[in-house]
Amino acid sequence: MANANIIxxxxxxxxxxxxxxxxxxxxxxxxxxxINVENxxxxxxxxxxxxxxxxxxxxxxxxxxxxxxxxxxxDEVLEGPTAVxxxxxxxxxxxxxxxxxxxxxxxxxxxGGIIEGKAVSVDEILTLAKLPSREELIAKLAGSLLANxxxxxxxxxxxxxxxxxx
Length: 166
Hints:
Elements: H1 2-23, E1 26-31, H2 37-49, E2 53-56, H3 59-68, E3 83-87, H4 91-104, E4 109-115, E5 118-120, H5 122-130, H6 134-165
Antiparallel strand pairs: 1-3, 1-4, 2-3, 4-5
Helix pairs in contact: 1-3, 4-5
């Protein structure tokens, strides 16, 4: 009788996790092997600050939830210890938080994931993680526009001065 209850509990876990995956803009699968409590706490805090969730779930449950959602090809990724990072909000801040931590800690690696419903490779994830944030891009655009406006103002002022001299 206990086996039937355990199986039912695991089936419920798979269904709940599959729902989380469906509602998430990003699902990152990461290898947390070698992480200590202090670093784990810091990582979880940085992920929470950007509205992400960090969970350690058995690979078999993750594998079944991914298959239930129609994702294949994650069997190799789901080897060894795997943590799952998700968010329903904008995915780039969560991705950047995980990437920054993995860059600072060699033992912590991104294994693969799903972004906006599409399975992506580690290379694609790293490319996105290295992009500037939205705020940085807006600041660069504003700086470029301001520089051009300043040049225009200086040119117009020079034209005004030359006309006044005549």
